[in-house]
Specification:
With 407 residues, the protein is of the alpha/beta class. It folds into two domains: 218 residues, no CATH class; 171 residues, Rossmann fold, CATH 3.40.50.1000. Helices cover 28% and strands 25% of the residues. A hairpin with a 5-residue loop joins strand 6 and strand 7. It starts with 6 loop residues before the first helix and ends in a 7-residue tail after the last helix. Its EC number is 3.1.3.-.
Length: 407
Amino acid sequence: MTTMIDPDAALALAHLPVLMADEREPFEVGAIGWSVYRTHSPSPSSKFELDPQGGTLIEYAIWYDWDIQHLYDLEHVWVRLNAAGDVTGVEASRHGERRDMLAGGQPCRIENGRPVLYLEPGKHAHWTSPEEMQSRRQKILAACSSLAGEHGVHLGNPFARAGAFSATPLDHRLARLKLRGDAFTPSFSFKPVELDPAKLKPWTQLATDIPQRVEALKAHLLAHQPRLAALFVDCGDTLVDERTEVKLDGSEVVVEGQLIPGSDLVLAKLKRMGHTLVLVADGPVATFENLLKPRGMWEHFSDHIISERVGVHKPDPAMFRQALAAIGLDESRAAETAMVGNNLSRDILGANRMGIASIFMKWSTLRTHIPESREEAPDFTISFIDDLPDLVDRIDTALALGTRSVT
C-alpha cells in the first residue's frame, strides 16, 4: 500500500527555517504551523496579506508556550519561492512587524534551501545575525530580567479577541510569577534549535491546538505555581481609623468610622492583582459589616474570620487555623500566607506562632510599636496602607522563587 505524501507538507519541511537560539534560552519551540500559498490571500494566522508574486509563499507560524514577558507567543516566517523552487526572499516577524531578513542589504544565509534566522533571547523575534541584534541589546537584557513576566497572559491576539480563551487576574499573576522565575541573562551565543519534524503541522491543526494549550498552561499554573495563597487582613487601624469609630450605646458594635485614607483602593488593587483576601478581625460581626459593606469592601474578602463567630480572639491559633481552612490549607502550608495588622500582641504574635508571614502596619500610634518579645517582632513593617501592594508582590515573588528572602 502506497502512502500519499502531501506535496505542500513536503515543501514546508524542505524549507523549514533553521532557528538559532541563545544558549541560555529557557523556552522551546512548541509547534510550527505551515500554510502554502500560490495566490494572493490574507494570512490565517497573522495580520498580514500574503502575495506569492507569481511563485509560492510558505508561511510558518511558530508557537512557543512562553515569551519571557507573557504566556503565548506566536511568531512568523515567510519563505518565498520562484517557479523553479528556489528561495528568492525571506521575511519574518519582529515585535509585531514583518521584516525582510536582510543585514547590511544582504539576505539571510540559506542552507540547503532553509533560511537561517537568529531568535532574540526570550522574545523570539527574528534577526539575520547576532550582530544585527545588538541594536536592541539593552532592551533585550531588561526584558529577560527586570521586566520578565510583565504582561502576564497575552490577550492581544486573534484567539483571545474571539473568545477562545481569557485570563483572570489570578491567571495573569501566576504567569508573571512563573516568568520571573525564568528570568535569565542572555549569552548572545547561539546554537541551532533541534526541531522534531512531528512539531510541524498544518496551520489549521495548530489553530485548533493553541486555545487548548493555553488552557492547559493556565491549569498547570493554578495547580503547581508557588505563590502567596492568601493575605489575611485585620480591620481596626489597618483599614479603618479606630479613633473615628462610633459605637452603639451600651454595645461593642461599631456603627460608623472613617477609613484610613486609601485602604479601599488598596483592597481593590490587591484583588486586581489576583490575590485572595481573608478578613481576620476581633470584634462583633456587625461591626465589620457596618464599616465595610457600605463601602463595597466586604465583598473583596473571600471569607470573614471574626472573633465573635470563632469564640476566641487573636493571637489564639483557632483564628488563624480557620483562616487557613477557609482557603483550603492546613497548618503545614501556613508559610504560603501573610497576615497584616496593627497589633503586635495579637496580629503579629498570632501569625508568627503559626508560621504565617507577619506584616505590621504601624500607621496608628494608639498601640505600641515596640515588640515585647521576639515572638512579637514582625517579619515586615509598613508605615502606610499604600505600601502594602508592593510588599505583597515582593513576598509573592520570593515564594515563587523558593525563598523567603524579600528584596
